[in-house]
Specification:
By secondary structure, the chain is mostly helical. The protein has 16 helices and no strands.
């Protein structure tokens, strides 16, 4: 069916770091299926669309688009679905300092707890951390973030865990007391590892930028010569001796895309061979991990 093809395309675009295209595909799919009678289909599309819009900093725009459908879900009493969308609505209201946010948060948490929707509890705790931060209640904000991270970790949700670690680190950097920067650096590096492990390349790059901007890079850590997260992955694969076809299979991208990335890496590093890319990666990794295969074959 068309909706399944649309879902598949959105996920592939997202996985490949093409977030703008993924969001546009989600928007077009929503406009096509927004009047469908299948509440599960509508909820899935709304959830994905709002996820993309939130990641791009356009949550308000996404909520405006799906508002009629949310109202219909409320009218139908589809509470099991709408509770999953409460965090998006509450976050948008909080960022506008709208007083309606707190009642929505409190009722959402109560309902999510009653029906055992732990994923939504964690999302709401993360949003409540933002609300506490805006009220200057720093300790409460940190406690909510830590509780959300614990739930995400228990439920094996690495993307959400990384996102919450990042948000908590930003809160600590905003307060800036003794010990906050050290904890922020630890959480940001953990978030970076999680994003990188699951292929969330745009998010990983954004964390790299936060680490660099905050001056939290570890001593001796190299900046990667301006390589994007995907380019760093391709460079690492080149250093492992893989061909373009093998890299494409490892990263689930087209071979032509690999060739494009290799060309960009050569240009950014100012070198003319794959051996030079490998040398750069070896220097970035350090002598003990220059080739992860050493001593294993």
């Amino acid at each position: 069916p068309r909706w399944l093809a649309a879902f598949a395309r959105m996920l592939l675009l997202w996985q490949d770091g093409q977030w703008e295209d993924a969001a546009d595909t989600a928007r077009r799919a929503w406009l096509e299926f927004e009047r469908d009678d299948d509440v599960e289909l509508q909820h899935g599309l709304v959830r994905m669309l709002l996820d993309f819009q939130a990641a791009l900093g356009r949550l308000d725009e996404g909520l405006a688009l799906v508002r009629p459908a949310l109202d219909r879900m409320h009218a139908r009493g589809a509470a099991g679905y709408t509770v999953r969308l409460v965090p998006f609505e509450a976050e948008a209201l909080i960022r506008h300092r709208d007083p309606r946010a707190w009642p929505i948060l409190d009722s959402g948490l109560a309902h999510a707890g009653r029906i055992g929707a732990r994923r939504e509890v964690a999302s709401l705790l993360r949003v409540r951390a933002l609300a506490h931060r805006l009220n200057g209640a720093w300790d409460a904000a940190f406690a909510n973030c830590d509780a959300a991270v614990g739930i995400h970790r228990e439920l094996a949700m690495p993307f959400e865990e990384a996102r919450t670690l990042r948000e908590g680190a930003l809160l600590r950097l905003a307060r800036g007391r003794r010990g906050d920067r050290e904890r922020a650096a630890t959480d940001l590096r953990a978030a970076r590892r999680l994003f990188g492990a699951i292929g969330a390349h745009r998010a990983a790059t954004e964390v790299d930028q936060v680490i660099a901007a905050a001056g939290l890079a570890a001593s001796g850590q190299r900046a990667g010569a301006g390589l994007s997260a995907r380019e760093q992955e391709v460079a690492a694969a080149v250093a492992d001796g893989l061909t373009n076809a093998q890299i494409a299979a490892r990263l689930y991208i087209a071979e032509d895309t690999v060739a494009h990335h290799v060309g960009a890496i050569l240009n950014k590093l100012g070198v003319s061979s794959r051996a030079r890319i490998a040398a750069f990666v070896a220097g970035s990794r350090g002598p003990d991990v220059a080739n992860p295969r050493n001593g294993t074959d």
